[in-house]
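User: Show me a protein chain along with its predicted structure.
Assistant: Here is one chain, sequence first, then structure tokens.
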Amino acid sequence: MASLLMITVPSVARGDRPAPTKHSILVVIGAAGEAEYGELFQDWADQWRRIAKLAQADISVLGESADGSNDRELVAAALRQQADAPCDIFWLVLLGHGTFDGHAAKFNLRGADFTAEELGGWLDPISSRMVLINCASSSAPFINALSGEDRIVITAAKSGYELNFARFGQYLVDAFADSSADLDKDDQVSLLEAYLTACGRVAEFYDGEARLATEHALIDDNGDGLGTPANWFRGLRATQQAKEGAELDGARAHQVHLIASDRESRMSAAARQRRDALELELAALRDRKADLEEQTYFRELESILVQLARIYQDVQDGESTAGSGTEKVAQ
């Protein structure tokens, strides 16, 4: 049965590319409080611009104008506009400070702030898949408010009471263009890989300063509103046991690539959709391994791996269709 794991993924022949995944990014720079933080947030926003250029993604940045008194309305208006301009994946990135009073978590703007619940209402009309990243302190309650189907939510804090300035945002955006963040060596950095890399570098910062870490990021991609910390992962898989058997996060975030590899770019949307579904089946199967008989486990494993290999073969052959791989398995 070990030979089943030796299925290779062929290199992709050159040719016409299918339409790439369309990413649209909105970066919001919040109130700096002090000039030092303002410079940092601007640097992070500029790095998002550089990443968006590499990804051929649309990007808008709010919070740079001289007058910030109406930033709240500008954010709400930008999100209303996004609802009328659907894309494959919409990214909202919040760079700044947050607060939590025990009841409501807020993202601080130069004028009136907005709460996690208010942001959730602004996002509801948007039909695209979403990546929602709050790089501020006190940001954990945003997971509870924003989590849902086809949404990935990342916060810099694991609690509303992690009140100190968070450095997570710097390390996260830097990871997307860092080859060392490509943990599975597939020539692209997934959102999960960027998250885990950023968390590792945050921990290294506090260790290097001999300081107690005051920020611990969370990721939620299964819609349960709970979130999973980086130290629950071994490699790219969450291995800790969640309370009451709750599903762990990470599999869906590992399927999101802002800067796609050459192989990924040559996949049709249908092939990517089928591949992603099979990968989620594979992750679920591995989670159930201890409950299955060995023969059953390896039989189901073989079926999934063969279908994945055939999808990649279709891409190499120029077919790039999800359906053909499925039909061959049924023969």
